[in-house]
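Narrative summary of target 7.
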Amino acid sequence: MDATATKPGTLAELGTEVGLAFPPSSRLLGVSRENGMDDLVMFKVELPRRDLASFLATCPVPADEFEEGSAGLLGPDQGFWDPSKALHLRTGQIVRHARATNVGVDDGRPEIAILYIVDHGT
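Modeled conformation, tokenized:
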């Protein structure tokens, strides 16, 4: 697959694309896209820790399905994408409409949480 240089989009647009709703306090930290037989978009989001519960309340991955660690769902570090540096990472996945959405939550910092989102065709 080749990485594309297309416009990354806003966080709201990315959320709509992958079926996730982010609190207004969220900030997009980076986006990467790959086109191919199974397209992929991955992006990293920062939000105040106090707003993590509101994100998780609307997240389609059930809270009890998040597991400690990356479970291989987030792939290797590259540039802005650094799940191996997470202080307390848990991940979950939902598959719908021939797409898999992997959600990683790093809630190991007192003030902020980092979200790692990977959405790809199956």
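The radius of gyration is 13 Å.
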